[in-house]
Design brief:
The complex is a heterotetramer, with two copies of chain A and two copies of chain C. By secondary structure, chain A is α/β, with parallel strands linked by helices. Chain A has a single domain, classed as Rossmann fold, CATH 3.40.50. Chain A is about 30% helix and about 15% strand. Chain A has an eight-stranded mixed β-sheet with strand order 2-1-3-4-6-5-8-7, sandwiched between helices. In chain A, strand 7, helix 9 and strand 8 form a beta-alpha-beta unit. In chain A, helix 1 crosses helix 7 and helix 3 packs across helix 4. Chain A starts with 19 loop residues before the first helix and ends in a 27-residue tail after the last strand. Chain C folds into four domains: about 190 residues, Pyruvate-ferredoxin Oxidoreductase, domain 3 (3-Layer(aba) Sandwich), CATH 3.40.920; about 180 residues, Rossmann fold (3-Layer(aba) Sandwich), CATH 3.40.50; about 70 residues, no CATH class; about 110 residues, Rossmann fold, CATH 3.40.50. The radius of gyration of chain C is 26 Å and the shape is globular. In chain C, the strands form four sheets. In chain C, strands 6-5-4-1-3-2-16-9 form an eight-stranded mixed β-sheet. Chain C has a seven-stranded mixed β-sheet with strand order 11-10-12-13-15-14-21, with helices on both faces. The chains are: A alpha/beta, C alpha/beta. Chains C and D meet through helix 8, helix 9, helix 10, helix 13 and helix 16 of C and helix 8, helix 9, helix 10, helix 13 and helix 16 of D. The structure holds thiamine diphosphate (2 copies), iron/sulfur cluster (SF4) (2 copies) and magnesium ion (MG) (2 copies). One thiamine diphosphate sits at the interface of chains B and C. One thiamine diphosphate (TPP) sits at the interface of chains B and C.
Chain lengths: ~270, ~270, ~575, ~575
Amino acid sequence: MKPKDYRSELEPVWCTACGAFGVLKAITQALTDLEVPPEKLAMVSGIGCTSRLPGYTNAYSFNSLHGRSLPIATGLKVARPDMRTLVVGGDGDGFSIGLGHIFHAAKRNVDLTYIVLDNGVYGLTKGQASPTTETKFKQRRGLAGPDEAPLNPVMLLLASGCGFVARGHAGNLPHLRTVIREAIQYPAFSFVHVLAGCVTYQKPEYADEIYHRCDVLPENFPNDDFIAASEAARGERFSLGVIYKKSPGEPLPDGSVTDDDDMGIWRGIQVS
Amino acid sequence: MKPKDYRSELEPVWCTACGAFGVLKAITQALTDLEVPPEKLAMVSGIGCTSRLPGYTNAYSFNSLHGRSLPIATGLKVARPDMRTLVVGGDGDGFSIGLGHIFHAAKRNVDLTYIVLDNGVYGLTKGQASPTTETKFKQRRGLAGPDEAPLNPVMLLLASGCGFVARGHAGNLPHLRTVIREAIQYPAFSFVHVLAGCVTYQKPEYADEIYHRCDVLPENFPNDDFIAASEAARGERFSLGVIYKKSPGEPLPDGSVTDDDDMGIWRGIQVS
Amino acid sequence: MSTSKPAAHHPPGPTVRRGDPDSAVVSLVGSGGEGAALFGELILSMAARQGLYGVMVQSYGPQIRGGESASLVRVSRREVCHEGEETDLLICFRTPDMGRFRGFIRLHEGSVVTLDSKDTGDLPEWVGTAGVHTYRFPFTNIVDGHEVAGDPKNMLALGLACRYLGWDADLGRHELRQRFGNRPALLSKDLDAFDRGYGSQDMPTMPHLQGSGRNLHIETGNEAVARGAMQAGLRFFAGYPITPSSEILETLIDELPGHGGSVVQAEDEISALGMVLGASFGGVKAMTATSGPGLSLMTEMMGLSAKSEIPAVIVDCQRAGPATGMPSRTEQSDLNHALYSGHGDLPRVVMGVMDVVHARDIMHKAFSISEGYQVPVLVLSDAYIAQRHQIRDEVPPPPAQVNRSVWREDGPTRFNLDTADGVVPFRVPGTPGGQYLAAGIEQTPAGTPSADTTIHALMGEKRWRKMDAIAEHTESWFRVLGKPGATRGIIAWGSNYGLLCEWVKAHPEYRAFVPEILMPFPIKGLEEWRKGLGWTGALELAHTGQFYKYLKTLTDVEGTRSLKRSGGLPLSMVDLDRLIRQAD
Amino acid sequence: MSTSKPAAHHPPGPTVRRGDPDSAVVSLVGSGGEGAALFGELILSMAARQGLYGVMVQSYGPQIRGGESASLVRVSRREVCHEGEETDLLICFRTPDMGRFRGFIRLHEGSVVTLDSKDTGDLPEWVGTAGVHTYRFPFTNIVDGHEVAGDPKNMLALGLACRYLGWDADLGRHELRQRFGNRPALLSKDLDAFDRGYGSQDMPTMPHLQGSGRNLHIETGNEAVARGAMQAGLRFFAGYPITPSSEILETLIDELPGHGGSVVQAEDEISALGMVLGASFGGVKAMTATSGPGLSLMTEMMGLSAKSEIPAVIVDCQRAGPATGMPSRTEQSDLNHALYSGHGDLPRVVMGVMDVVHARDIMHKAFSISEGYQVPVLVLSDAYIAQRHQIRDEVPPPPAQVNRSVWREDGPTRFNLDTADGVVPFRVPGTPGGQYLAAGIEQTPAGTPSADTTIHALMGEKRWRKMDAIAEHTESWFRVLGKPGATRGIIAWGSNYGLLCEWVKAHPEYRAFVPEILMPFPIKGLEEWRKGLGWTGALELAHTGQFYKYLKTLTDVEGTRSLKRSGGLPLSMVDLDRLIRQAD
Ligand SMILES: Cc1ncc(C[n+]2csc(CCOP(=O)(O)OP(=O)(O)O)c2C)c(N)n1
Ligand SMILES: Cc1ncc(C[n+]2csc(CCOP(=O)(O)OP(=O)(O)O)c2C)c(N)n1
Ligand code: SF4
Ligand code: SF4
Ligand SMILES: [Mg+2]
Ligand SMILES: [Mg+2]
């Protein structure tokens, strides 16, 4: 199947040059690489401009409620482990109203691929600040406390014990394609932070500015090392690539190792 | 005022030897040390055994809804900056249903002191697993996925950019008293993780076992160093003490420094 | 002891009668840790073994751990779903503990009371102490003026109760061996205590109640809901612990995996229902269970179920509200929320559980409707049913179920309008060619998001057509009690069913109508039943008369009285009698 | 062009009349980015400068950015709160764009239509094209067969409209200078285009509408709510963005700090209301604003407000539901949720905003009740009012407010029962000796948590006594429209007020009753007003007739018709006429 075969008939209603276009493309490319049958593909989102993505994808798609994509996807995947399940949405959807669910999903470690299109703003509701909005931008709008700083999603995901944490940029398609592909292949919960522009509610230079603060991680980056990953997650610049990838059996941030053969979230259903 | 002057007339209905008794005592001691006038003290909690604490404290107390102590306390503190505001509750209340609010409170950095009594279980509802319940305990009850591990609250709070992260144990009162005192004194959002036993729904040895895994941090621990703090937060053992304390103006985990003089969450109200 | 004087808020009714001759009621009052609940469970279990029916209820103070605790067991020759009005045997370890149980325990003139030999206190007047026979027994072990650990009091009480009931001592011993066979030290201690109690020659004895000899089955309301759902095909459950619903989650953790299903303890109630919708979107029968606070949190997600037409069953074990309220106490005050909550015009079905036996049946019906019509179905239970233990006959095989109609190649678009009952085959993920967009946003028949006034009107009509179809499907989903010719009528719902069973028996001038489905309401059935009635009342446990007001939207209830009080203890015959007299 | 043929779902009514002679309606249809909204705002602003009244509404497709966009402005010599039924001047840049605005724009026989000279398409029939006067204007700049950037089209249109309205060109130029004085390059471009439009000699002109000359004030519904709240003493606001309420948050970010208050953008709606309760627990007047999805999420927290008796004002800007629904479209379907949501018997007050001018007044009343009685007050606005721009007279000084009664030393316990209206002085943090426990759990008068049936009953009664007191306080909080002697009556609520103002003027046989407070309902006023009526209808924009069913719980509405449709576009005169005829 070609990337365009993963597109539905709907034409995106995003603004011209919205960062979401790139992500839609990268996802369809990664799906092509992995040869996922569309009927075995599920895509769940919340609400927001970027959360419209499932509507443009040839899949069992669910454009659900603001902030609730992860619980819905968890239920689907536990009940239907045969479905390849992607979860997509924006920074407001994921990091504001939906933030709590992320850590629980990471902890539960059900095999979902969660892709957040972070444009640092609430696009759909016309430009309010999100948890990753730069402080200056928020302060101009009177919405940041004096000591406030944006959340660092990659750092938080690392701290949650998530086994796969990656970052891409909507403007670097070949790279994003490989990152998303690897995330989908990861056999447990995986997280991809995608830097994406909002051409309407961010200043026009935003996407470029962010892009110039990105560094693609070197090939030999030790992404199985939690401390190296934490360091790559901090600082003014954005590391792109697979920042952390835990091999099964490796200790989690709390130091514990879990037995894979213990009973857990019950998986009794066999469908097809 | 003496510690007992910070107690209300109500007799706690906790089980004999519940870890919450120690925390109640340590809080009243810290308040004595700081000479907080009871009418200037507010204590907000959610719902749970440990969330009954405000009822036993001589303060403007609010035993609110399960998981919602932080938003309520934030509103109170922003509207009434003159009130010394403590927030208390359990691990289910704070780390399960209320988890998302913690990071937003840390980010907003309103001057609250958040004390979580972590007994690794839902006490009030009779012994279900919480996000910090040990995996074995959960698996015995069929509630943990095979790859699941408990959340590490201290690690998560560090990743959120919280400027004051500490840990105590309900069985070490002198230490807990100083940690809570220092947290209350910290001029922005502060977090204290208190290891506490539930004598009814944990095995009887639980509190002791945990206690023997605790190490009080050395006097000279560099708690202004984020990396040192992260390392102290990981591993099988529990570091007790002030694990991280950011001095104002120091970069946050994302590397940014904020201007203290910028306008932010509006603080226009002057009450007494 | 003084004579019986009723409490101000429980004036006695003139028509209150003795416990019926076919049954016996035994109560135990103790402190937390003294095993009142275990006592009740063991009595009930012994009854079930003999083919007797029965009910056990418990009561405790605001603190779930510690504090006073009481249990009340009724055993009976016929099937009962009410714990009985008056206690025949009351065992109380310390008379001051009675304070918490005002209204929960009532004596009659033939009651037997067993108190501690060392206890010099009196029973409170409100319990009704005229004519009772008091017997003293040395429960406590006093050494040098201090109470020290002695025989387990609840086992002493068990022996006494067994003797009183006229049961064979071997029945009790067998019961204890079954229960504690794997803990021999404990067992031998318990057996000794049981024998000591049973051996007390002065203990009065009541005539033996003869059971059928068939081994009957004990279940709580929460277990029955969980098992009924499993029988109905439940394969995914997500929930968040909350009193008084947690045992549904716990029962399913133990039992659903064996039936090929999955259970997730969610991080909160929003995600619990979210997970249920995810599983159901996946074509799997799914359910959640909660209580008022959780139900309130689920409101937005319930709207998504209705809009995107994804089946979901939501069980609400009501407790006294608003807000946190009284978590362990019963009330019927979530009805308004169940019927009307959620922004937008949101179709949903609401059903009411009548008792533990009914709980299994109703789950079949709930899934039939939810799956058959692709709508959210709320099943309202309450603390009174949820936590009650009840003996029932062997479970009949499940009635035939309606299943979800499933899309096949060349089937209609997902939200096709051309459907008489509003139902369109469901596209189960994995079916080639069935890919579509489910959404919370309004959609065209093909699924394209739309903000068009006409599309919205057509889609709203389609969604609500289902409710008409369901109304037709369920028009006989109600029960009537009492004699057809009776001229006084009571309309009630949910757990008041049990009380009404007793009431119409004691008061043959009454008959009762209890809907099994509340929305859509079996209104034709009600109208038919009302014919020939004189006085009519609508009974509920909700301060504002939610059920009564709801009836007003359905039919003319001019002249029908509202019989109501707020929750806490369930309604007793005394309460109902008072409410009727007040309403006149 | 073909003759007017109405769309299937908008059959024309026989009684539809022309726009009134005192007003003019101008519409602009364009694509996103062509500035239709700005056009509307500028016309409205010019009207306000002359002392004319008016209303501007907008419409856009499902996508908020991009896609088609239209604005409709009515200017009038008298105060109006309805955008008028028919457009006098329609300017449309591309005829295919009209497709999205079916039902939004209607022409009459004297309408003027201005189309692009290069556009060869026809207007759709449903707009009503019989007898209209069409004028062509070169809006687009075509070079080598391609459209290239030329004069800003909306400024050309502004010039044309100004000319059509018979306004002085200097008025327009002044307006533009005021608006864009700080961006000189843009200003000069805009002025050029304006002049080019204004200079088009063939453009028809209507008789000049003379304003009073007083400078009037423009406000949107959301601004009015925000400012009304500030005047009423609001000092804390927390909210989460959601269409169509976000401008309340945004207005307060700009304006509340200057009034000594604080604003927090919360992480979600649960925390928004949580923060409000925290601030109000602190003794500060606090409010949140949201739309349906957010309101559903706030349900549990609203129960806490009611139980713990902490005042809170919650504004709900209704949009079409259920679920995400149609975010930019209006509906009145959150009424059920407002009236009945929340587990437990939960007292709350519900009020309905009638139009932009009313929005300020109602906020004073909302705070009076919330603070005076320590209850949650829901104020229901909707997308139609929230987003509408309206010209109003200078704002009158705020009416006297009821403040929260405040506890002083030796005052009563926090939940003292000995209070006729259920209100007990509030203990404001910081007051020595006033320390107490606020809780979601049931409490005794002194504040001790309790699970006692009697305490719960007494506390429930106390909480509901407030509702009786409020009912008395607010029994005159309604408006009547039309002549007292009229024999046909319409009962409606909220934003249908504007339509009814027009309707009763055009149909003197009708009068209308519009409650300002819905719960408790001013029922005595309604009964008084109903006297002498023959035909009566209850009007609302909700598919299931929520308001009508609510009326049934209050009084006998046998014979009263339900006039309803689901949301999207607001109701027009044509719609109302059709609904009345269908109901007969
Ligand atoms: C419960 C609820 N609250 C608020 C909203 C309004 N809302 C829709 S999208 C959105 C935020 C969008 O931001 P983001 O997730 O970053 O998506 P973007 O549009 O930037 O892609 C909000 C607040 C809603 N739909 N539901
Ligand atoms: C919305 C809601 N969901 C669930 C509950 C039930 N509930 C009360 S306390 C609690 C968890 C208690 O655990 P924790 O916070 O760890 O407190 P502990 O009792 O252990 O001190 C739960 C699930 C509730 N009151 N409200
Ligand atoms: S508003 Fe921003 S996020 Fe939304 S479609 Fe436009 S560019 Fe994309
Ligand atoms: S159940 Fe556990 S947490 Fe609750 S009071 Fe008892 S010991 Fe404490
Ligand atoms: Mg965004
Ligand atoms: Mg706990």
